[in-house]
Design goal:
Elements (H helix, E strand, L loop, with lengths): L2 H15 L13 H12 L14 H18 L7 H14 L6 H18 L1 H10 L4 H15 L7 H13 L4 H16 L1
């Protein structure tokens, strides 16, 4: 991996940890990190936990939806090789600041690969959208997917098309895609 690649990955991780530009004043972390906290707790074995667990099933579903949406965009071109997968996994793990274990992300990516193979892109996009009820969560899905798409050399036409499918299912305007892509481009050029 070149120094430029490492720098790009570092910038993506940094932006994933911070709230989007449109977040309300006083918000200090990203929705991804907040949801990761619950996902990480919920996926641990009962022996690792003491009551109360802090597990929030809605937050765990949100985390899965955020990761799956980025995964779907990353797989849009049909070429998600081992290097891309390892980079994707590394970025998500690092951005989540230790709230999710490596084994949890690996298992989640295995599940997502199997579901995409069985169901196809359209059904998986619909399933992601079904789990999202808040507009700010829908916008975060696009933002995270746009940031992660930049790791592999920018957002291709097919990746943008997948973002458009997501936005349509999430009942978001095309301007939400443009905003997510603009924020990602601006953040990564800083």
């Amino acid at each position: 991996m070149t120094a430029e690649d490492v720098s790009l990955i570092g910038r993506v991780v940094s932006k994933l940890r911070h709230p989007p530009t449109y977040a309300e004043r006083g918000v200090h972390g990203s929705i991804l990190i907040a949801a990761a906290g619950s996902y990480g707790v919920g996926a641990r074995s009962p022996d690792d936990l003491t009551q109360p667990t802090g597990f929030d099933p809605e937050a765990a579903r949100l985390f899965e939806a955020i990761v799956e949406s980025a995964y779907l965009v990353a797989n849009a071109d049909g070429d998600f090789d081992m290097t891309e997968r390892e980079t994707f996994e590394h970025v998500v793990l690092t951005a989540c600041e230790g709230k999710v274990a490596e084994r949890q992300i690996s298992a989640l990516l295995e599940d997502l690969q199997e579901q995409l193979s069985e169901d196809g892109l359209e059904k998986r996009v619909q399933m992601v959208a079904r789990s999202i009820s808040k507009p700010e969560h829908a916008r975060e899905i696009l933002r995270v997917a746009a940031l992660l798409a930049h790791i592999s050399g920018g957002v291709s036409a097919i990746e943008r098309s997948t973002l458009e499918r997501l936005a349509g299912e999430l009942k978001l305007e095309v301007s939400a895609i443009d905003q997510a892509l603009a924020e990602a481009s601006q953040a990564l050029s800083e």
